[in-house]
Amino acid sequence: MEAARRDPAQDLCRRDRRARRALRETFGAEFKTLDERRQDEALLRLARKEAQASGTQDEGPALQQTLTETELSFVPLLAMHTRQGFYADPIYGGNKDQIGWKVIGFPGPSSLLEVFTGRYSALPWFAEGEEQKYLEANRGE
Amino acid sequence: MANRTKPARAEACIIGAGASGAAVAKVLTENGVKVVGLEKGPWRGRETFGGDELANINRYNLWPDPLLNPRTTRAAAHEKPRVELFCPVPQMVGGGTVHWQGWLPRFTPNDFRLRTVAGELKGASLADWPITYDELELYYAKVEWAFGVSGQAGANRFEGPRSKGYPCPPLPVSRYAEKFHTGCEALGWNSFPTPQAALSRALNGRRPTVISAFAQQHGDPTGTRSSALNVFVPDALKTGRFDLRPDAYVRELTLDSSGKIDSAIYEDADGDLIEQEADLFFLACGAVESARLLLLSKSGRFPRGLANGSDLVGRNVTFHEYSAAVGIFDDPICAWAGGGYVSASSFQFYEHNASRGFVSGGHIACAGVGIPLPINWRLPDAPAWGAAAKQNDRDNFNHSMAVAMVLHDMPRHENRVELDDEVKDAWGLPVTRITTSVHENDLRQGRFLIDRGADILEAAGAKRVQKVYAERVTGNCSHQHGTARMGDDPSTSVLNRWCRAHEVDNLYVVDGAPFPTGTGANPTLTIMANAWRVAEKVVERRGAIG
């Protein structure tokens, strides 16, 4: 991970070369030429191989709040970066028109500005009648 | 390094501007004491926080960057330590109160005498506190009112007596809190709205807290939550007697010939070393970093570290552990709303009960699953990628919730905070090495609490329930206590009942370090109440200062 910080592009290329080599050895073909099922299988194998090599539990225990990317190897990191791209704020470009949020039903803010100004509220998704009660109690505030 | 004018001597120097440091600053300055505050990290405005899950949760916007501020951990003294982001707490003005949601239950009267209540536990170093709930009660009420806590007095059947209710009624009821109450009621168990560091009504000139989805670990872009940054720091500044210096990393405390602390040597943002003299010194860096600073301050008089003649500094450290039962419901429960922590709680299994076969118990409460926003939300057994992962996200994101526990991990003499022999931080100082292994009691208690959480989910109608047992202490609560125990006996404690070092007359430690036991509840309300108690005592004795 320190290498990744020093030169992210070079580090990514190195990881990519390593992963391609491993896949060629296993499937005798480039990843992009495999069909979807074989691609999944290839990633699964690669993940298993990495886990064996590192000897650690790669993804950390469930509910772990202190998971850091510095501890992940290639496949879990790829999966995490994919999640980040798809579900992060649309400002980064991967969650275009909130498509990631729409498919899972997360009514995120229309913009980060809405969060900063305090206009974004989650109260409509509280228990029945709670938003109304809260607004009445705080009328004028 | 340039030569700088040495700053004027202060009456009091507080190191750390989080929950406890800010509480002490408020009480001292409001009583006429001139205070210099030295905070290692930056003083950030609310515009630097906000609704960006990627920046805040995944890119260390708030947590210490593990490459600049690493820690090492190991399970036993013979193991090679590995670098790990263990027990991260923001290092900045406001400290842990910047990243938290702020569950603020009171400890119960028995928390202050667990050794007496539970007896001796082999392999653990249980101890009673030198103070009682009754001695602290007044300060609980002071903090609840001055800091701003929303809750329902009397709703927690296991709480000790109170002199005063909460200043604000509970926050609105989330759908996941509703499920929790339903489950508890069906089982005949007591439940209550989790007291929160937030305002459900305007208070002390502050407006009600904005209830967003981006809360826990996001910082507060609206400035409406109760935090040291939003409340106690501004209170202290208003007096004109608080000189708070951010980016001031204290490297060492130096002694005068009488054995009192003379000065704090800190490095500022330009890399200049500055000496700050003061009559009194308050360590408020969090239990891990406060212990580290004591251990870094070696001298002829204290070769093992300041105030550490007893070799107890850093020992008996406890961290809690967070884990949960996770339930899936047919109806949408939106456990991301309110950041997943506008919750309901139960102390039904908090008090010690010998018939359960383990010591003590813990706080159970409902929450979102993990960090409940999309990136970091994930069910325990779900695949991380592929078509099945996507389907799972679609099906369960809005239908899942957790019933979590705060594990009361047992203090152990050999669980400790030390300086690492090899790893240094970006400033060239040895980092903290944490040696910690679980006691069998922790595992048993954890399984029991998670089982009860699963009971609640099932009783509330969950169609599927999974249990995630805690297998070790990973520091995932970001709670830390015990590294400088308070007690009446200098051979078994570092601090006296006023949190003053037995061995150094002008040194106080006011964060979680003085806690002899970690208890099974979130610590920060008690940290602030205790800091307030200590500060008031110092004010009372002020005639003798200097």
Descriptive overview:
The complex is a heterodimer of chains A (141) and B (546). Chain A has 141 residues and is an all-alpha fold. Chain A folds into two domains: 2-105, no CATH class; 109-141, no CATH class. Helix content of chain A is 55%, strand content 0%. Chain A has helices spanning 2-6, 8-27, 36-54, 74-87, 99-104, 112-116, 130-137. Chain A is elongated and about 70 Å long. In chain A, 20% of the residues are buried. The mean pLDDT of chain A is 85. By secondary structure, chain B is of the alpha/beta class. Chain B is 23% helix and 17% strand. Chain B contains eleven helices and 17 strands. Chain B has helices at residues 19-30, 53-58, 96-99, 114-118, 133-148, 175-187, 228-238, 287-296, 387-396, 440-459, 524-540; strands at residues 10-15, 35-38, 71-74, 82-84, 192-193, 242-245, 249-255, 261-267, 273-283, 322-328, 344-346, 363-367, 400-406, 416-424, 430-435, 464-467, 507-509. Chain B is globular and about 70 Å long. The model of chain B has no long low-confidence stretch (mean pLDDT 96).
Layout: helices, strands, pairs:
The complex is a heterodimer of chains A (141) and B (546).
Chain A: H1 2-6, H2 8-27, H3 36-54, H4 74-87, H5 99-104, H6 112-116, H7 130-137
Chain B: E1 10-15, H1 19-30, E2 35-38, H2 53-58, E3 71-74, E4 82-84, H3 96-99, H4 114-118, H5 133-148, H6 175-187, E5 192-193, H7 228-238, E6 242-245, E7 249-255, E8 261-267, E9 273-283, H8 287-296, E10 322-328, E11 344-346, E12 363-367, H9 387-396, E13 400-406, E14 416-424, E15 430-435, H10 440-459, E16 464-467, E17 507-509, H11 524-540
Parallel strand pairs in B: 1-2, 1-9, 2-6, 3-15, 9-17
Antiparallel strand pairs in B: 3-4, 5-11, 7-8, 8-9, 10-13, 10-16, 11-12, 12-13, 14-15
Helix pairs in contact in B: 1-7, 1-11, 5-11, 6-10
